[in-house]
Amino acid sequence: MAFDSITVVGGSLGGLAAAHELRAIGADVTVHERSKDRTQPRGAGIVMQPEVADLLERLGHAVSSVSVLLQERQQLHRDGSLTRYRAPQWMTSWDTLFDALRRALPDGAYLLDSTFTSEQADGEGVTADFGGHRVRSSLIVGADGVGSTVRTSTGVPGVLRFSGYVAFRGLEPEADLPRNLIDLLADSFTLFGVPGLQLLCYLVPGADGDTTPGNRRVNWVWYVNVGEPDLAGLLTGRTGRRYDYFVPAGELTEETTAWLGALAGTALPPQFAELVGHSTVFMQPVYDMPGGPMLGNRVVLIGDAAGTVRPHTASGTSKAFGDAAALADALGSARSGRADALGRWQSRRRAHQVALAEHGLMLARQSHLGDTGPRFGPLSSRVSIHS
User: Fold this and answer.
1) Residues 205-227: pLDDT tens digits?
2) What is the dihedral angle through the alpha carbons of 21, 219, 62, 319, rounded to the nearest 10 degrees?
3) Which of 84, 161, 194, 345 pairs with 59 at a CA distance of 20 to 30 A?
4) Is 108 helix (H, G, I), strand (E, B) or coil?
5) Where are the beta strands (DSSP E) in 150-278?
6) Rounded to two decimals, what is the model's pTM?
7) Residues 269-312: pLDDT tens digits?
8) Is the Cβ–Cβ distance between 203 and 216 less than 8 Å?
9) Residue 96, φ and ψ in degrees, nearest 5
């Protein structure tokens, strides 16, 4: 079966990776992204993984050109003291990767303000409906994330479940932060954790991809256990808008900001409390979406659309890239007459998804993150913090 024309739904990192991998096997690929623009960063720091590095290098980007090299890991204790050990690692950011992948794709192959609503397949191909505008191709790739409309449209079962904790985040220019914080954080992956709380921090390229010291950004993520009754309030922005998956920087309410500042002062080491105080915070709830079928009638699902993994695995992006690369290999084999190629792709990638999801749950439990750990939300009772 030939898959010469492919419609990718979802223009974030997974969709862009799919576009490049599928173009490399000669497919005519168009990416449809529902956002009206991509001027706002939609994520933060990313640990460089082999799947990502491989595609970047094939597109002519050395890892060193889009990443910041850290030399060590350091454990920050409640009293501000440190334990260090050497652990070199490359770190990049969502917007740096997005810009590198997007620039390598022709403008006509990436369409904004293009919202997928449904699809209909037949023996010759599949038609995707984008609000009345219909696109005919031989395959649809659903790369539209945790709230995947493609997944819902194709009837793949799965219900999002709140994990019991959220990720507060900051992404600040290093030039805007006090010198003492930059001296502490610049060359290290720095972390702090107690049951129910975990904060980690590292530098990433600047907003324009600059990796020069002084022009980079400090990225941090703070996981906090909160009860489900707290979630609606945390997801409500200053304007009263209710968000589903991402509360942008500057949109946390005054009440949430005050609570978070008080929690930082009582729960975090002084250096991290200072960092949070200097940041414009944004937030993402951590959800679980169980993996299910990735392969339908001329429709495939990749990345979070196929199932989520906890962020502690540092592999959400690399999983999507791996799904895309393996899909391109499978479609190439299918062209050569391997009737079982896509089935084998699904089997292997689902097994990978399950293993990563289980590993992420184990890591969360080790830190008492989730439903069984202590809660710190605005509606929760005060919990004592131990170093």
Assistant:
1) 999 999 999 999 999 999 999 99
2) -30
3) 345
4) helix
5) 161-173, 188-194, 197-204, 217-225
6) 0.93
7) 999 999 999 999 999 999 999 999 999 999 999 999 999 999 99
8) yes
9) -65, -45
